[in-house]
Sequence to fold (873 residues):
Amino acid sequence: MQVRTVGIGRSTLCFWIFVCAAITASAQSTAGQATLVIRGAKVYPISGPPIEHGVLVVTNGKIVAVGEEGKVKIPRGATIEDASGKVVMPGIVDSHSHIGIDPNPLASDSGDGNESSGPIQPGLRALDAIDPADPNIRMANAGGVTTANIMPGSGNVMGGQTAYVKLRGSTIEQMLIPGTIGGMKMANGQNPKHYGTKDKAPMTRMEESALARGIYEKAVQYKAKWDAYNKAAAAGDKAAKQPDRDLELDPVVEVLEGKRVVHNHTHRADDVMTAIRLSDEFHYRLVVQHGTESCEVAGELAKRHIPVSFTMVDSPGGKLETINFDLGCPATLEKAGVKVAFNTDDPINSSRLIIRQAALAVRGGMSEEAALKGLTLYPAEMLDLGDRLGTLEPGKDGDFIVLSGPPFSIYTHVLETFIEGQKVFDRSNPQELRYATGGFGVADRAPALPRGEN
Amino acid sequence: MGVLRWFSLLMFVASPSLLMAENVAVLADHLYTMADGAQGGPGMVLIRDGKIEAVRTGAHQQSPDGYTVLKAAFVTPGLIDADTTAGISGAYNIPADQDQDEATDPNTADVRTLDSFNPNERLLKVLNQYGVTTVQSAPGPRNPIAGRAGIFKTAGTDSGPATVEQLVVRQESAMVFNLGESPKLTYGKKEKAPTTRMKTAEIIRRALSDAKAYEEKWDKWKKDGSDISKQPARDMKLEALVPVVDGRLPAIFNAYRADDIDTAIRIGNEFRLRYMLASVTEGYLIPDAIRRAGVPCLAGPVMQRFESLETANATFENPTILKRAGIAVALMTGYESYVPKNRILLFEAGIAAANGLGMEEALRMVTAGAARILGIDDRVGSLAPGKDADIALFDGDPFEYTSHVQAVLTGGQVSYQRR
Fold:
């Protein structure tokens, strides 16, 4: 009896732990379902002109209303945050990042971006190598980034499947955006030629293209076999033999079917044209990534509606294909009618300074309007997420940031970052401030400037 | 004189990048001379023969006859990058244009930046276009004793390609010592010394000690009558270190982690060197130790990538925290191994300005403050009569992302003009 009572006690304890855990979990999700209202700020909805004294209402993680103060109904019981004198805009979408996969050295001693055992790797998935604990992800939050396209590196002609993620959560499953399968990373030009130093292919740009065409032709044939089988099977042909499944070719077929966009690392103008040539030949959708010299062929991009995810750097060079880097390139693309997004290529540029990428394009002659879209709507569109991200409109995800001033001033700081109504960064918290300014690795002994001084 | 004036104007119109005007008046809505006195009011700088002739503050300045007039919203001294590999580490980043690290011997005290400096390197043009008119170009991070830095202008005053002699401000400005990861990784790979921080420190201490002994040997030989048959053998490495142990040539210790910075201070004090600290990534963790040592800091670029453990704790607030501790601070862009090939001092100073320092203090760090630390304030760093006419003109706050450098004068010549 004594023993049995103890037994019951244990299971009761277990039960209560379970209940408590359930209550905690439900409390968290209830917090997510609460209505959050940000009022008083200058709101940049991106879908329309800025609203001087705006109100943003987020319920269940979704935007339910955006508008002028006084014209938007504020729900009863809502949590209200006064953001007078501040600026609110959509969460930033980074269309080219390697955070979590090429981590900060504090989190890992090696990167997992480039599988350098062979130049064609469509079977690889970035999601299998992303470390959600990488502090670079928190640094990206500090820069206002809420969504990222995390990609394999550019060392391979076909580097693998990219992952479209929200920058929150402690597992990749919590990060992945439901319903997305990611894109396909490709690269041409200088980087994949590193195989040449090992006497392996590719050693030339010619071979890079030959390898790319090879895998697409294989996928075309594979798809034809499956199409024939599916047709026969649908017609009730019991003798039809199912082709063997090929994990490498399935994602390439998704590219051919338009379900997966190709994100093609390419810098030099002739390399951009090579990327276009391949996409023309195999009829797939292309995003030009980096596009250092893409303005030289802006007309070719414009007439095909191919967008550019541009990487801004401080000075030219460091590698031959960026030797003609020019701050004015995004402006030229804009004038030609090409949609331009700004990426970090983190770790090339720190995610906490992603707004700076677009600001420097304004310095180079781009309009502020296009530069703002290049941080929000256009990159969202490049990830096929334009219907749920990139603007502050009812029905879209409650991903937004609060800035201390005009978006493109160097003196402006990201104060808060929200993903689906949940705060993921708060500059007023000294621990989180370290992700914005640096030194989080020694945060407990790092002196900081008095809070709010900046 | 009239003919000359017209000639100047014609040149200005025909070829603005090679303006030969001898007399220039720069009118500013906001003039930052960085000399003594209030900053940021309206004013005018008059330039004659490449030097600043006069500075007049106050509104409604009238330029004298015979002066070509340039106007801008903000006018500052040309910026000074206190430590960079620009000029010896080229934009292409291929072996053909990389001359910053002679990583064949951990002690290359005998080498000089001067002998690798490419005055026509395109990165120098890029820096000049961002208002950087003076650089201390220093050997890279790989050798414990890396060689001698020099100070150079980023643009010549003659038309056409320059020679390094035309750009020199100081042929030999400092001896560079490197601590931390880079030396031990460089030589560790080859199974040569140093493979640890201990050995790096020992290599430096032994060389400094040997240099003292070498100097004493020569002094003694001279005292004993300079008998040529008894002359000591010459050693170019030790000879290069003699002015360092004498305090005639400053030492630069490049160090990132706090304990490496502390090692630099320990060695500097032991040998009573005249020295400064470069990079100082974790300097903000030990500002008191740095202040007590009385040593100036050339704070490294905070937008650099975390390529090493020793830079992983870089913070935007480093220059601000060091400055507030009472330490003399300049800013530097250092060495970049990939894209972008060089950080831009103007951009780095902007990050400091936006992270506690404010516009004027950040500007001081890259002008008058840097000039004082490098000992070149007799020529550059402020706009005052007799100084070199190195001037940057901006259409807004120099550090705003969306401002533009409108024009740059180097030695009184328009070295850059925005089209």
Q: What stands out?
A: Chain B has twelve helices and 15 strands. The longest helix of chain B spans residues 197-223. The CA atoms of residues 392 and 408 of chain B lie 5 Å apart.
